[in-house]
Batch of 2 targets.
Target 1
Amino acid sequence: MNIFKNKKDHKRFMYLHPLILSIMFDMQYWCEERNIPFKITSSVSTEKEDEKLKRVSSSHRTGRAFDMSVLGWDKKRINEFRTVFNNKYNHIAAISGFTGQPTLIVHHNSGHGDHFHVQIHSKYSKEIKLAQQNLPPKE
Ligand SMILES: [Zn+2]
């Protein structure tokens, strides 16, 4: 099963921090058990790509966040998912710039489809030199 929406993110996801990767696979398992579609729409990005998307957080380019589509999920599932995983990973979640609280999952629709932004704490930031790592160009 391919859980990635596009090749670029499939090739880059290995640069994510191991903690956010294990959360990703935990979420995949949760969805599979309930027959809910699971699709990663974004993983590691470059600063240029973040600028283009007007991203305010560095979490994608520092390897501690991914986005997953929740298109077609019903409200009950969305709430259940957020409760389960926010509680489970509260201790390593990113601190929200808006609330000052640990926030693993941000639910938003920024014009690129309804999705969850999943993020861990900035202390897990990695310096990822995508340009020097000969990564495949954006599609
Ligand atoms: Zn995101």
Target 2
Amino acid sequence: MATEVPAFSPHVPSTELRGSGGLTPPGPVLTRFFGTPGLYTLAVYRDHGGYRSLERALKEMTPQEVHAQVKASGLRGRGGAGFPTGTKWGFVPADVPGPRYVVVNFDEAEPGTTKDRYLVENCPHQLLEGACIAAYAVGAHQVWIYIRGEYDHPYRILLEAIEEARQQGILGERPFGVDYPLDIQLYRGHGAYICGEETGLLESLEGKRPQPRSRPPFPAVKGAWGRPTLMNNVETLSTLPWIVEHGGQAYHALGTDRSGGTRMLSVSGDVRRPGVYEIPIGVTFRHVIMELAGGPPPGRQVKVFWPGGSSAPVLPASMLDVSTDLDELARVGSMGGSGGVIVADDSRCVVKAAARLLRFYAHESCGKCTPCRVGTDWAVRTYRRILDGEGSSADLQILDRIQASLQNGRCLCGLGDSGGWVIMSTMRHFRPEYEAHALRRQCVTGECERQGAADA
Ligand SMILES: Cc1cc2nc3c(=O)[nH]c(=O)nc-3n(C[C@H](O)[C@H](O)[C@H](O)COP(=O)(O)O)c2cc1C
Ligand code: SF4
């Protein structure tokens, strides 16, 4: 079915290109052609070798061979959980007859995360090619791209790119003359953070309220419309053309033993050069924050950073030398998450920042399970009391109980854990700030006196 393409001219160039810090040949991977005029068009993408990997996969490789390369690459999902991509593909059953789907998670609503938008605005065909390679590998013919509702510009870019690929026969009955029909449809998201959670997304894609499903069954077995479904993040899929072209081992060699390759980090907050950077996995956060992003504003010190989006437990400045390796982050009690690095300098009140995030999680809670629905709301009210100067030691105990009740599998999806991690990690590393607010009515940074606590 042809999609009607609305008028879209002139093309608005993407946000400022920040480069690909620290990568030596054969890197960078995802951003290697960024900055080339017209890279978003099919013609320019093909001039740079675009769609050669898909053609090669379809003509010269079996689905199992593609899968083997992805396994060898050590690629881990870039959407949040960091699950090994090759292993996940193996969960899609090979022997179930009937339709199956690849779903691209382009909801990107995690605070501090903008990398998927950046990838698509610069090079939409890289994503389309990667999604088609994944479809071939798991035996799917239909790809759905679930795009965040507010992403109007990337939506239009993708509509145009899909239409170009259809007109050139890359999508259709016989891509590159091979009898393997492929199609891609775009679906605009419903404007809630929970739409990015994989089973909430599937509910939304089916036109329902985006409330996460109980698992098992997992989407690989029973996903969209009850069919086997592979869901991957935009960045995960955009990496596949490079892996097929250069081989899984070459990709693996760019990163660390347990986390192969490169990844995109969106750096925001109190830094001089906020932006999106591609890094080889394994460099330190000191390199990312102090060198690539230029460090905090003059006269300021880094105080705290979120290494993987607002859902990742915070780390204090004393941990700037922690590596971007996913296992290393887990070892120090955090996670690589969505790659959104949020930096706060020493003028920021951590209690106020945590309160603001809890308000976000409470607002975005879908309400399906009690610990999350009730716990996040309690947390908001407790933070309110503390920031209003009406706190006590009992409030610190309440926060402690709430964070414990939100974590460790007590909620149906990761949103509950995320709210709990904000409280747990900020209390763990900045307990004196909490005590100053709750017990002595003091903000140690003075931010709450300067700006008021009311906007938390
Ligand atoms: C509340 C919540 C929101 C999420 N939002 C996104 C999102 O916007 N994009 C994304 O790729 N993954 C998101 N995830 C993770 C997905 O559930 C899923 O793990 C991911 O899409 C799998 O792709 P990957 O294996 O390529 O990382 C979210 C998870 C949770 C719990
Ligand atoms: S944890 Fe929160 S967002 Fe997730 S299903 Fe439960 S109530 Fe909904």
